[in-house]
Amino acid sequence: MSSLKSDDIAPFATRLPPMLPPDEQYNALVREIDAHNYRYYVLDDPAIDDRSFDALLRQLRDLENAHPHLRSPDSPTQRVGGEARGNATKVRHAVRMFSLDNTYSSLELAEFHRRLLDSLGTVPRFAVEPKLDGASVEVTYASGRLQLASTRGDGDIGEDITANLRTMRGIPSRIAFLGPVTLRGEVLLYRKDLEILNAERETQGEEPFANPRNAAAGSLRMLDPREVAKRPLRVLFYQLVEGPSMHTSHSESLDWLASLGLPTHRRHKVVEWSDVAAAIGEIDKARATYPFETDGAVIKVDGYRQQEILGFTSKFPRWAVAYKFQAEQAATRVRSIVVQVGRTGAVTPVAVLEPVELAGTTVSRASLHNADQIALLDVRNGDRVFIEKAGEVIPQVVRVDTAVRDGSEEPFAMPLVCPECGASLVRLEDEAATRCPNRGCAAQVKGQIVYFARRFAMDITHLGTALVSQLVDEGLVSDVADLYALTAKQIAELERMGDKSAQNVVEGIQASRQRPLHRLLCGLGIPQVGQVAAKQLAEEAGTLATLLGWSESEVREKVGSIHGFGPRMVDCVVAYAFEERSRGLLAKLDALGVGIAQPKLAVSATGPLAGLRVCVTGTLSKKRDDVFMSIRAAGGEVHDSVKKTTTHLVAGDKTGKSKLDQAKKYGTRVITEAELDALLG
Ligand code: AMP
Ligand code: ZN
């Protein structure tokens, strides 16, 4: 395997002598940061700790502040994403972005080889590499800098996604080669990153992504790079389309790209035809250990001269072929199709299956997503189906074996009423999901309690799904507050519960009284309020009683002033705080004394910023939240936007023009971060 060793990459710039002219100092620093990013994001082998890295970044930022002409959109300081774009700009690919011919068997592979021999007359060597499962992109560097990135689109014309690509951490902002370089690669998410992203989405009440490919493709098309920057996307290059002419083979180019610090998959192997099958087998065996999903191997004729002779069909290169791995599949029968009601009321159809082994686990249920998906697959009760687990978190039904139907299979229709509570289901026009609108629905209550008990929320040990279900069905609890009144005796009387385990449950519940308010607010599952927002909300309110004491306009004002809370979030908080059922729940929890008051920030009324009302714009060297904290701790008030009463506007890098305009209009003093630091003492 021709993977790179970490010392193959460009040597790090040594500490910079201060007498270098600023632009040289700047370029050396950018190169050093790029090299560290490469080790961190591509080689997974960081050479320095996070703090030292941050220090380098700060050095760069200081230089940019001192010499603003040095700052550019591709600077490593700008990774948080620039302004949102409007409609996507189209990009025409200089060379068509072909797809790959697929093969599934050694027979088809032998056929590919025979065609090559016919055309070439000689025996080529092959590069065998993983087929990365993401979304393809084309990237151009010129004068050593990232210039353009585009999606594949229809192969000839794609969309400009340059700003989105710049947010991806493994992408170097500079490369040491100055000529034009055009590359193709795959944007993807590592499995572990998808897990984190999905967990975060869940706390926000958003659908998790089914697999890394969907997550990557969806993210790429987003119009706001700042949103893209929040997703842990990576790009791995697999092809050089235009570059220096000294390369004679694909594998040589890949090694060259890696030597420039460009992220590549680093898992290609160059072999004779006789070893191709073994190389494919190796990838198949190893792919479970790769950090990303791999759905096949790509076999490419390595020599460029030979690639040229072979050329392209209208759709594919003749010199490459993809060998698709069998996704692990199993055949089984649908016993019934049921619907499941989640904590938000979303109704999901689920196939109940005859249990079957798949990829090491026994599967007895598979998601059918929604009514549209069922119609598409035409799955019926009693059907023989194939299920698959290919990078997907939950097994999916992929195909129905219609040939073996005997007429007894029954088509499925979405129920009109909730199977749990009988409420009429609703389907909003712009939503694929069907929902039960009854907030008191037993299924929703169960889901809410399970969510409340989860690790990131109230962390109640020993309270599992089955027990929650029993508690609700027995009428012992009808909301999360009821948990706190449960006795060990009540629980011990339930089926399958002993005295000892009942005691453990009660202890777990009582211990959760001591969780800070933000964990409680997060556990309530208020739409749009995830872990971060819950923390800010808790800090603003301090206690549940305070929150309950606010009038609607006060909630709007206080919550609206929290940094990052847009109108939709404010609406959700208001709706939750004033809807009868949820308001009742808040009052109940307050009366029970659950959740410790969030220590209000110790604000000094006589601090150096007392009486000042400060707004912040642009990127500062410190985290925004930390800056807000220090402003408030010093007695200042933080304004989310520049108002008439705002006294100071702190302008960092890449300031928003509208805030500066407002400041001018109101005569607000504009100061730098350094001046703020001076004020803070
Ligand atoms: P398909 O979309 O199935 O026609 O496959 C073609 C796509 O596979 C290309 O557009 C690339 O985005 C993607 N691909 C993933 N890994 C590789 C690789 N190692 N070499 C070439 N293409 C790849
Ligand atoms: Zn219901």
Brief write-up:
The protein is α+β, with helices and mostly antiparallel strands.
Can you put this structure into words, describing what you see?
The protein is an alpha+beta fold and 681 residues long. Helices cover 36% and strands 19% of the residues. The strands form 6 sheets. Strands 12, 13, 14, 16, 17 and 19 form a 6-stranded antiparallel beta sheet that branches. Strands 2-11-10-3-9 form a 5-stranded mixed beta sheet. It has a 4-stranded antiparallel beta sheet with strand order 5-4-7-8. Helix 1 runs antiparallel to helix 2 (50-66). The radius of gyration is 29 Å and the shape is flat. Adenosine monophosphate binds next to strand 3 and strand 8.
Give the helices and strands, then pairings.
Elements: H1 22-42, H2 50-66, E1 90-92, E2 102-103, H3 106-120, E3 126-132, E4 135-142, E5 145-151, E6 157-159, H4 162-166, E7 181-188, H5 191-203, H6 212-220, H7 225-229, E8 234-242, H8 250-259, E9 269-271, H9 276-286, E10 294-301, H10 304-310, E11 320-324, E12 329-341, E13 346-358, E14 361-367, H11 371-377, E15 380-381, E16 384-388, E17 396-400, E18 410-411, E19 434-435, H12 442-452, H13 465-473, H14 488-492, H15 499-511, H16 517-523, H17 531-541, H18 544-549, H19 552-560, H20 567-578, H21 580-592, E20 613-617, H22 624-633, E21 637-639, E22 648-651, H23 657-666, E23 669-671, H24 673-680
Helix pairs in contact: 1-2, 12-13, 16-17, 19-20
Residues 341, 418, 420-421, 423, 436, 438, 441, 443 line the site of zinc ion (ZN).
